[in-house]
Design brief:
50% of the residues lie in helices and 18% in strands. The longest helix has 21 residues. A hairpin with a 2-residue loop joins strand 3 and strand 4. Strands 1, 2, 3, 4 and 5 form a five-stranded antiparallel beta sheet that branches. The radius of gyration is 28 Å and the shape is elongated.
């Protein structure tokens, strides 16, 4: 009489260590991608000067309640204000460069800019920036 034995005599084992290895590889690839796309200081300065210029245009160069007789003059002044800010973009970047500290954490960078009594923190990762709500400079001390 012939008795067939199962061909696969391996006992089922846990796949835990195989999954841990896959997760470790995925995290390593993610960290390498984050480090590779960690934006440099010059990219931050371009981003921050654009944000500051837009903010100044919306607050300083806005149309106020001017009588209709002077509306043409007001539009000219608003246009001049915006042109002035655009022409001073390099100066704005220089100001930001002098008032910004960068913490390079490898996979992300944290930029802290002091403007007056306000402290602005921006996180740079994956080639993008996220600016956190401003805090008071006195609150950090």
């Amino acid at each position: 009489m012939i008795i067939d034995k199962p061909m696969n005599t391996n006992q089922p084992t846990s796949n835990f260590f195989g999954n841990v290895g896959k997760v470790a590889i995925a995290l390593t690839v993610l960290a390498a991608g984050m480090a590779f796309t960690n934006p440099p200081r010059d990219k931050y300065l371009t981003y921050a000067s654009g944000v500051l210029q837009t903010e100044l245009e919306s607050t300083v160069c806005k149309d106020s309640s001017v009588p209709k007789a002077l509306s043409g003059v007001a539009q000219t002044l608003i246009g001049s204000c915006k042109n002035l800010l655009t022409s001073q973009r390099g100066s704005i970047e220089h100001l930001l460069d002098n008032t910004t500290e960068r913490q390079n954490l490898g996979i992300v960078s944290i930029y802290t800019t002091q403007l007056g009594k306000k402290s602005y923190q921006t996180v740079g990762a994956f080639g993008n920036f996220v600016t956190l709500p401003p805090g008071s400079a006195n609150a950090e001390k």
